[in-house]
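Researcher: Go.
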Amino acid sequence: MSVFKTFYYILRENKVSILLGFIISIGISFMYAGNLKTTDSAFEATESKIAIFNNDDSQESKDLIAYLKATMEVVNFKGTQEEIDDALYFEELNYVLTIPKDFGLSLQADETADNMLEVQVKPGSFNQMYVDNIINHYLSTYRFYSTAFPEKDTVEINRLTKENIAEKGTIEFDKSYDRLEKNKATGGVFSVLAYGLFMTVFSGISIVNLAFNRDEIRRRNSCSPLSLKKLSRQLLTSSLLFAVICWALFIAYAMVYTGVGFTAYTTYFITNSLVFLLAIIAFSIFITGLIKSSELVGAVNNIFILGSSFIGGVFVPSEILPDIVNKVASFTPTYWFVRTNELIGSSTSLDSSFLKEFQFNIFVLAVFASVFFLLAMMTKKERGGLKFSFSKKAAA
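Model: Structure:
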C-alpha cells in the first residue's frame, strides 16, 4: 500500500502539469461545437461563407457576384495564400472563388468558363458541392437564354438570367446526413484525445518513475523488505489504475460534450480509444524506464507526442499533408487512432467492409502496444525488476 500512496502523492504534488493535457483537449474540442449542435435537417445557403476575388470587369461577373451575395454570406476578405489556407482550415471561410479576366467574354462565346473559375475549399467540405451547384445554376441559365434567344443582346440575356435565378429555396436532408455530420464531429473530439490523453498519462507515469529511479531512492528501496520485483509490479499496477482513471475522465467528457449517447458508433469509438490507451501505457512505461531527467520528459512530450499529433491528423487533416508525411506518421500509434476515428465518423453503415478495415486498424494499434510492452519488460528485467522465465528449475 505504501507504493500506491507514494504514487498518488507524487501525482498530487504535480497536478498542474498533469492537468495540462486535459485542459488543452477541452480547448481544442470546442472547434467541433458547430457540427455537434446540428439538429435541423435543413441547410440554408446563407450558412456558407464565401470570399470572391474578381479579376474581370464584365457585367456577367458582376451579376454572378450579386447572385452569390443574395444566396449566401460573401465575406470581404483580403489576404495572402497562407491566410486563405488558415481561414479555410478554421472555417472562417467555406469557399474561395477567383473570377479570371475575360470571364464575361468566355461566357458570351459559350466557352467552358466554369472550368476557368478557381475554387479553394477545405478538403471534405460539403460547401464545395453546394456552392458549385449555385454557380453552375447561374452559368447554365445564362447559356440556356443565350442559346434559345440568339437574337437578344447580352443586356437582355443578363436580365432574363437574373429574373430566372431570383427565386430562393431550401434543401432538405434526411436524418442520415445529420447523423453523419455528428459522427464526423464526434470522431474529431475523440481524436483530440490522441494528444490530451497521451500527454496526461505519459506525464503522470514519467513523473512518478523519475522519482522512484533517483539513485538515493533506488538504494533505499534495495534495502527495504519489498523486493524489486514486487515494487515493479506495484508501480505497474498503480500506473495502469492511473491511466484507466484518466481514460475514463476523457471518455466521460467526450460523451457529455458530444451528447451522442450510447450507440453502435459510440461503442467503436470507445473500443478504439481503449486499445490506443494500451499503446500509451506500454510506451510510457518503456520510455520512462530509460530516461533519467525531467528535461527528457519534456522532449518526449514536445517531439514525439506533440509531433505525432501534428503529422497524425489531430491538428492538421492528414488529407492535406504530403504523402511522405503520412507514411512517416503511419509508424506512430496516433496516426492509426485518428484514422480509425475518421473511419467510424465517415461510415454511414457498419457493414462487413467497415468491420474489416476497423479490425485491421485495431490490430495495428495492438501491435504497437505489444512491441512497447515487450521493450518495457526487457528494460525492467535489465534493471532487476520484472522477470519472466519459461523454463523450470531442475530438482535438486
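Model: Residues 33-46, 384-396 have pLDDT under 50 and may be disordered.
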